[in-house]
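Fold tokens
===========
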Amino acid sequence: MGKGQKAWFEQVANSLDPVLVHELRRLREQDDDKATVPVIIRLKKDLEDEKKEHVFQLCQEGECNAVHGELELVHGLYGHLHPETIRQLVEHEAVDRIFHDREVRAFLDVATRSIGSRDVQAKLEYTGKGVTIAIVDTGIYPHADLTRPKNRILKFVDLVNGKTEPYDDQGHGTHCAGDAAGNGYQSEGLYTAPAPEANLVGVKVLDGNGSGQLSTVIRGIEWCVKNKQKYNIRVLSLSLGAPAFESYRDDPVAQAVEKAWHSGIVVCAAAGNDGPYPMTISTPGLDPMIITVGAADDHNTVTRGDDEKASFSSRGPTIDMLVKPDVYAPGTDIVSLSAPGSQLEKQLPENRVGEHYIRLSGTSMATPICAGVVAQLLEANPYLSPNDVKSILMSTSQEMSGDQAGYLDVRKAVALAKKYLEFQKPTVSQT
């Protein structure tokens, strides 16, 4: 290549996401003829079958290439491809854009009382009963707070290791499940989540180190959309993310959560833990459609007067210059379920709380707490749409100093959700 001449991937940068361009540049410098890149290929819409099949064939040519499957929600496929194959795909009439299939990482005692969930449970008896929350994370250990006196884990799907019985080798997903729906069985009710009677579906998309690929997360979301009716999945909790490098309009995970939202599932996603710096909202939290949750510090008190934004909670605006997060929920020193023998127990022995619990902080904790609150709202009014839920949570939240997003107020939110019933209840025809 002559001096000043651009590499092929720099000349077609509009067809590749910025991270993939960087990865191709790195591989060229390594000069490894057999190196491949994990990619997501988005195909053009209304594509003829023969053109789609030709893309599949092209991706499987050569000993280095491998196609792992389709991603229906984003109209694409994923696999590992040689740079030369990527070069050919860029010029293919059926290919819209190619993304680097980069890494995604995993980012209740007083907390439940400080946002008013306990009052709603005690006085109005809204506990998320009949509502299913999908925890897309590192898995779910069948902790007694989720399985006794009744097993509320309706289904477990393992997209990492293919196991069929619920487990969690990392521990993050189990903590999140407890944040949303733990019933305090082994703490005599002390560590009770907002929705202690909600059902759960565990979808394992992250490994024992708490990491995974964008494509696996998309497959997890896709599974939830396809099985929404079967398990009555009304809420999707995503305490994971990756740095955002481009608009939500192109980001494949953002587009996947939008599809879930439009299918009738309320999506709660973590803002990220890269605060207090601005423009640190991760994907899929950057999507304007869904509920992006920031973490508040409740200072371990029931009163709300001293609650403030957690310093680590990611700040907006997003890469599209949109306001995020949408709401704040407790996210510091949250005591929830521990998975025996998990990586978290080994890495943070000082955070153990007795034999069955562990204390963690992050927007990862705030997100399922918000998901549990959503389950309470949907029990109070099952006719709410995802847009209704988001509007109610945002309009009833308590102002947080220096932020357009407010702090969850479950009492006010449930009251407004019930108010909606006045015009949402189906009427019986008099004819």
In short: The radius of gyration is 22 Å. The first helix runs from residue 8 to 11. The CA atoms of residues 313 and 337 lie 22 Å apart. The mean pLDDT is 92.
